[in-house]
Amino acid sequence: MKPVPALPAQVTWHDTDTRVFRWAARTEGRWWVLRLNDFPEHPLCTLFIDGQVIGDVDDVPDTWQLWPGSALPALTASERVEVLALMTGLGPYGTEAGTPCAGDWCTCGILTDAYAARLNDPPRTSREWR
């Protein structure tokens, strides 16, 4: 696993309002995006910069101030669209390496682009999980 790069100073993580690509930060013209994985079956998060995998992150650096209970600013609607377009096809763990997880024991099977694009509202019916 690669060491997590240092996030440049004065950068703010944003809430993406999605359950898949949970946080994003724009720095030096590049999008840093954290995919929230099905922990503990997979590492906690995977870091991408401009859609390219950097590595898995089990311990998010405290300086990123992501949790617990962080009140982060939301992305604008156009930024959210840009981030989701950049992350197209990268929802299930392992897709970045060409081997998407297909295990019965985790949620990777539902992490489609359509699922990632839904707003982070709790599902009301079992059909909404698909």
> What's the main sheet like?
5 strands, antiparallel
Give the number of helices: 2
Secondary-structure element string: EEEEEHH
Looking at the structure, what is the overall shape?
globular
Question: Would you count the extended β strands for me?
Answer: 5
Structural class by SSE content: alpha+beta
Give me the side-by-side strand order of the main sheet: 1-2-3-4-5
How much helix, percentage-wise, in residues?
10-25%
**What low-confidence regions span 5 or more consecutive residues with pLDDT below 50?**
126-130
The end-to-end span amounts to 32 Å
Could you tell me the strand content as a percent range? 15-25%
What is the CA-based Rg, rounded? 14 Å
Give an overview in words.
The structure is a single chain. By secondary structure, this protein is of the alpha+beta class. Helices cover 12% and strands 21% of the residues. The chain has two helices and five strands, in the order βββββαα. The protein has helices at 77-86, 113-117; strands at 14-15, 21-27, 30-36, 45-49, 52-57. A five-stranded antiparallel beta sheet has the order 1-2-3-4-5, with no helix packed on it. A hairpin with an 8-residue loop joins strand 3 and strand 4. The protein is globular, with a radius of gyration of 14 Å.
